[in-house]
Design goal:
This protein is α+β, with helices and mostly antiparallel strands. About 40% of the residues lie in helices and about 10% in strands.
Length: about 230
């Protein structure tokens, strides 16, 4: 359970700060019995526990660096792995190195890069291929609404983050920017026309429907929480 000061209770280990197992491999091992930080020649990668019942570690590519970015953690924040000091920037560099045009989930990478990279607009992967924010944006816009993790709600969120970063330091071409805005307007219209009577949304949110059927769609509480919470974020 987390308190307002970012400290939570973790069984017999007592108070634990949220970032401890991310920034210190020793604490990761104490809390979860596994070290999530993986030093490579490109920087620090984060691994996930294969057992879905445990659901610890990085479940989506770029999820850790995205969470650190949204928490306001600076790129020079130290990370300790096996008594060797690294930094959050090492996670960023490893993520950029591993990125390819075939990456199926770019929502978290988009959020992380939008926080840490501007005013830089491009990056190279380990194969020497160059990418930019317009590439990420076009990939997100190309998704069908509802496609992706958490019933597609991470996609408009990532687009909103991109546009917020672009407003502070231009990282998108004019045409790409206009297409991203149009896509978010479309998503907002879908939400407006698919809201359930109790104010929530479920997995059917991308469907335009003039009259909402309260029995339609997936009404499981966990689905409603995921779709409603993520939608309200952006």
């Amino acid at each position: 359970l987390l308190g307002r000061d970012g400290v939570g209770t973790f069984g017999e280990l007592g108070p634990v700060r949220v970032l401890e197992p991310i920034l210190d491999a020793k604490r990761s091992l104490e809390l979860y019995g596994v070290v999530f930080q993986l030093p490579t020649q490109y920087g620090i990668e984060f691994v996930g526990v294969p057992d879905v019942r445990v659901r610890q570690g990085e479940l989506h590519f770029g999820q850790t660096i995205a969470a650190l970015a949204e928490a306001g953690v600076e790129a020079n924040r130290p990370i300790c792995v096996y008594n060797q000091l690294y930094s959050v920037r090492d996670i960023l560099e490893a993520t950029a190195a591993q990125f390819t045009s075939q990456e199926p989930e770019i929502e978290w990478i988009t959020v992380a890069f939008a926080h840490y990279l501007p005013p830089t607009r491009t990056w190279l992967n380990k194969y020497g291929q160059r990418f930019d924010f317009d590439f990420l944006c076009r990939q997100l816009i190309g998704r069908d609404l509802g496609e992706g993790a958490c019933y597609g709600t991470h996609v408009p969120y990532a687009l909103a983050i991109l546009l917020a970063a672009d407003a502070q330091s231009p990282i998108l071409e004019r045409r790409t920017r206009k297409e991203a805005i149009a896509r978010l307007k479309e998503a907002a219209n879908r939400l407006e026309n698919s809201q359930l009577p109790d104010g929530s949304w479920d997995a059917t949110w991308p469907r335009q429907r003039a009259t909402v059927d309260p029995t339609a769609g997936t009404g499981a509480p966990n689905v409603k929480v995921a779709v409603t919470g993520h939608s309200l974020e952006w």
